[in-house]
Input
Amino acid sequence: MGNDKWSSKAMFILAAIGSAVGIGNLWRFTYMAGEYGGGTFIAIYLVCVLLLGIPIMILEFTAGRRFAAPLTQAFCAIKKQFLPAALAFHGLNILVLSYYVVVTGWTLAYFFGSITGVPPPLNELSQNPLFMVFTPISVLIIFTITRLKLVDGIEKANRMLMPLFFIILVIMFGYSLSLPGLQKALEFYTHFGEPTPQVVAAAVAQTLFSLSIGVGIMLTYASHMYKRDDIGSSAAIVAGADTIIALVAGIAIFPIVFTYGLDPAGGAGLAFNSLPLAFAQMPFGNILMPLFFILLFSVAITSAISMAEVVVSNLAIKYGRKSAARITALIIGVVAIPSMLSYSSVNLSFDGMPVLDFLDGKVVVLLYPIAALLLVLILGWGWTGFPREAAKVVPRKLLSLYIFIIRFLVPFALGAIVISSLV
Output
């Protein structure tokens, strides 16, 4: 671990952006905004990024750089009694990744399908047994990348995929500015309703999910930093880039939604049911549709490998990186089966909804804030060296405020969200 470092601070930031910018920005953010009132959800989300997201990211970066070790070793270095908590974080990452690789497979399937024509709706295409093949392909791609050393695997993947993502997003954003539905999209973005507890809980969960914070991902990535790398600016750049991309992605997608009469609250099926039909009607749709799905796939993979890296980096200490990546891929492949079968002829469901939707819409909304609360309490209170390390990162004038935010404001806010979700 000690010699496995990012080649530069710029590559660390790019990889962290690659982890943060994922399907959560394009697929999840757009349909969450559609379901929870547009501007109301977005406004609360922005507040959450400032008051929760950036402080937690700085905390994870600080701990990762200080311990220069994977999640389990970092937690045990603080106190050996925190080992069960570390294992719980690994379990949550695997659980999220189990349905994330399924959605990643969808993006790949729709990319190939859009090259030859208009792919059928998800509920129709998913009945084809060949459709499930794309989930193992996604797992295989993750294994291929994570089995390599940091510079040869994750860093090269981000160096190739993130510029591709930015280019395609700019193309789609520019095209959407010319659509007649742009005005309605902007009105939707600025429409404010009642900020109910459900909207707040959804915005908090989206903040944690989108920024890849609260579950040890950023701590793991920061463990590969050099001691000289600046944490405050890195966190600001990553959080800022992730937020801007989420907003830009919304402006790129919602004008299409309103121009072609689609439902902005169309849920998870918006990207895979409604948008292909809209692309089929628009000029240059045969070009834009494959670009859209390769856009989704590129960010899905960079986020997926960051979740897998949390597990791989810990197992690598005992088994070596190649074996660790193999074990992780096998576990993910097995745990992904229920989510994969939920969109198939089996139609596996739980609590009246597909297993994948249940995990994404119910479990993550509840478990992500719980995990983030636990991480903040361990690092903010359990780690006696936290104030000393924070003093190396945060300007002296803001140090007391930052410690107050981490030790009191963030736990209070997350605790309130957890209690509200449970009630």
Remarks:
- The domain at 9-422 is CATH 1.20.1730.10 (Sodium/glucose cotransporter).
- The radius of gyration is 20 Å.
- The chain has one domain: 9-422.
- The first strand starts at residue 349 and ends at 350.
